[in-house]
Structures are given as C-alpha cells and as structure tokens.
Amino acid sequence: MSAPPARGPYAKSAQVRRRILEVCVEVFGETGFYGASTKDIAQRAGISHTGLRHHFPRKEDLLAAVMELRDDQSVQLLESAQALDPQGHPVEALLGMLAVVAELERQPGILALYCVTSGEATAPDHPAHPYYVERYRGLRAFYTAAYTALAQRGALRSVIAPETLATMTLGLLGGLQEQWLFDRDAVGIEHMLRTFIGSFVPDLAPPNPPSTSR
Fold first, then answer.
1. pLDDT digits (tens, 9 = 90+) for 120-135
2. Assign residue 166 a region: left if phi > 0, alpha if psi is -120 to 50, beta otherwise?
3. Domains of the chain
4. What is the DSSP letter of 157?
5. Which is higher by pLDDT, 213 or 40?
6. Cα–Cα distance between 164 and 178 in angstroms, integer?
7. How far apart are CA 180 and CA 157, in angstroms?
8. CB neighbours of 163 closer than 8 A, spacing ≥ 6?
9. At what angle do helices 129-152 and 162-182 cross, to 10 degrees?
10. What is the C-alpha end-to-end distance of the chain, expressed in Å?
11. Which positions ≥6 away from 44 have C-beta within 8 Å?
C-alpha cells in the first residue's frame, strides 16, 4: 500500500520546492548556470530570496536538484517499460530510451537546460562537470551493453564495434537535440534517432516515414 499524500506544511513545502525547480529549468535553459540569478529565480517562483535560500542554500544545490529530478523521471519511465536491463532485454532497453527521448521532445525547457549546461560543463571547474562525466559514461555503458547483447544474438547488423556505436548514438542524439531547439518543425529527435538505430537493429526500424505536416 502506498503512503498517504503529504498534507499541511509538508505538502506546501514540497509544492514550493517543485515550483522553484520548474523555474530553474526555464532560467538555466535560458542563461546557463553562470548567467542565472537566484534573485531572478525567486522572483519568478513567487517567493522571497530568503525563502529560496531556505530550500536551496546555494545555486549549486538548485542545479543538482534539477538534474536529480529529471534523472528520477527518466528512471521511472524506464522502469515502467521494463527497460532497465540492456544485457537481458536489449530491444526493450533501446525502446525505453527512445521513449525517454520522445518525452523530452515534449519538454523544451529540459532540452534547453541540457544543451546549455552541458556546453558550460565541459569546463572542469563547472559544478555540473562531474554530473555530465558520469552521465555520458553511464549512457555509453547502457548502449554498449544493449548493442553487445544484440551482437551476441546475431541481431546487430553492423561491422562497427558496439562501444563505437554507443558513442555515435550519443553524438547523434546531442546534435539532434540542438537542431530541434532551432527548428522543431524540421527535426524529429525520436524518429531520426530510431531511424539511425533501426539501420543496424531491424527490430527498432520505424514502420512508417515521418509526416511532413505537424
């Protein structure tokens, strides 16, 4: 049995934190981490700067909380699709990742956040640098495990090593996300990524060409 929903001040505090993080997605996506102002975030969230600092004492805490929230949402989506086992169920795992990508297309603020902060975070002293290092390592390992499992089953139609295919997949995904932010009508992230993966994993090939009208 699930726990009863929080009530009273606890529920209000959770709502305030959630509102702050929603605003952070917008602000960090617009200006990056360094360009963001905690006073601006507090104003947009409809609370005092002191109230913001009560929940998140440092701007670094805000960034970490936003990333953690998004990662939790992705994991929940993968869990619901039973897609967390790339070695045992590689096709399901890849389909789950495509579902996460499709969900991101409905959240332009999150995509902007990733694109802007990941660019900033290439600097080793950026607070999100360790996060992105581990994120990309984890994603490469996920795709590598799925492609390796498919190769072992004779279901990977490529002479390229699984590790290289994994890196190429992430490179394509990052480029598609950036292009989508500039021209959403011309770029379909999930469909194009699926088309790429489907070129060497036939079970994932999209059944129909994308519609030209949106």
1. 999 999 999 999 999 9
2. alpha
3. 64-204 (1.10.357)
4. -
5. 40
6. 22
7. 28
8. 140, 144
9. 130
10. 42
11. 23, 26, 27
